[in-house]
């Protein structure tokens, strides 16, 4: 397991802070279920997240688990960057998953509208 030196938050971007979509895949393990634990500046176990930014799709990083609730600004890459092929592949797959999720939501909305119209037509016919 390779750890890089501590990074500043400007070097890592995670989707929730930019208002972008959430992770395209569910996490395989909870954010605190890795060993050996790494402590943040709060002296608590840092959470292990996955970046889905354009620059680092699929790359894992450690961040203070309480960062959104007033925790510290600790952040560190958990592993090195992917090679260009894997990075491009992850980027394309991430975008395809997001597109399919968006399309599914639009179709579900259209089905809901159609069901409402059908119910209204049934009332009119009765």
From TrEMBL:
GO MF annotations, alphabetized: zinc ion binding
The UniProt record lists the keyword Zinc: yes
Keywords tagged on the record: Metal-binding, Zinc, Zinc-finger
Chain intervals for the UniProt region annotation (Disordered): 1-26
Annotated GRF-type domain residues: 40-81
InterPro entries per record: Znf_GRF (IPR010666)
Comp. bias (Low complexity): 1-16
Keyword Cytoplasm annotated: no
Protein's name in the database: GRF-type domain-containing protein
